[in-house]
Amino acid sequence: MLGGLPFKLVDFGFRGVSSVESAATGGAAHMVNFLSSDTMAGFMMARKYYGEDMAAGSIPAAEHSTITSWGQEGEVDAFKNMLTSFPTGLVAVVSDSYDIFKACKDLWGKTLKPMIENREGVLIVRPDSGDPPVIVVQVLDALGEAFGTTNTSTGHKLLPAYIRVIQGDGISVESLPEILEAMKSANWAADNIAFGSGGALLQKLNRDTQKCAFKCCEITISGEKRDVFKDPITDPGKKSKKGRLTLEKGEGVNDYHTVTDGKGDPAKDVMIEVFRNGELIVDQKFSDIKARCDATLDVWRE
Fold first, then answer.
1. β partners of residue 261
2. What stretch of H or E contains 45?
3. What does 89-109 look like in DSSP terms, one character per residue?
4. 3-state DSSP call for residue 190?
5. 129 to each of 64, 132, 136, 227, how far by Cα in Å?
6. Is residue 115 within 8 Å of 162, Cβ to Cβ?
7. What is the reported pTM?
8. What is the spatial distance between Cα 3 and Cα 97, in angstroms, rounded to a whole number?
9. What is the 3-state secondary structure (H, E, C) of 68-92?
10. Distance from the first to the final alpha carbon of the chain
């Protein structure tokens, strides 16, 4: 369901970036579109600079050492401890420390099944190894066998509302469609799963990913305006825009184009001045940024 979409991609990226500042900027950017994050620096940036007390949220979640410290024979007790420590709400438990299939079929699916069914909340089972498109379907199959399924309006299988899956290993913009396609082929609904992305989410980007760079395009010398640009013969792709620029919106939802050489209409320029000589001209609120983004998404959904 699209209503749950903002919670379907969790930011696990803090440990994979070069600095706390990188985590803050990338983490806050993620929160413009999604409401689940474990990157505290992003929360802090949104609060300090954009007036947002709580830009997203998180849930109690086990990690491997909190399970493996109980020993292999004590894994079921570690699982039970998570359910009793957090008797309501969402709780995520990593389940591949030893045998993910035994965990799904026997530990969750038999021993702890009554606790899961009677708990006021949702258990989120987390596999964390293997080939993601394969392992996700296998885990869903195991949980479906143990807990049963219903069918969505599109005829896809859906686990009971009290149990879901989160895949937090190997998640990137490339792997996500592959996993969802594998689920679709196996007749599993997308609503069964959420994703957590770490190393590929916040900093597997550079200026060339979207061919983005900041360049000087105009200079005034002794009152005379001059175009500033480069156009290397060895790489036409590095030709920069020149002259006074305006970013103007066309008729389509995502139709923006840059007018160069001072030929644009300043009144139609959607870019606004935020800083001038160190002075903050416009104090952007995080809620305003999210509202603009949500408005665009609403048009896409239609």
1. none
2. helix 40-50
3. EEEEEE--SS-HHHIIIIIII
4. helix
5. 12, 7, 10, 54
6. no
7. 0.82
8. 32
9. HCCCHHHHHHHHHHHHHHCCEEEEE
10. 14
Secondary structure of residue 204 in the 3-state scheme: coil
Angle made by CA atoms 171, 102, 106, in degrees to the nearest 5:
125
CATH superfamily of 2-197: Aldolase class I (3.20.20.70)
Name the β-bridge partners of 188.
157
Nearest 5°: phi and psi at 125? Answer: -85, 130
Give tens-digit pLDDT for 115-126: 999 999 999 999
Name the residue type at position 138: Q
Helices (H), 155-285: 175-185
Tens of pLDDT, residue by residue over 220-267, are 999 999 999 988 888 888 888 999 999 999 988 788 999 999 999 999
Which of 11, 7, 56 is CA-nearest to residue 164? 7
At residue 170, the 3 state secondary structure works out as coil
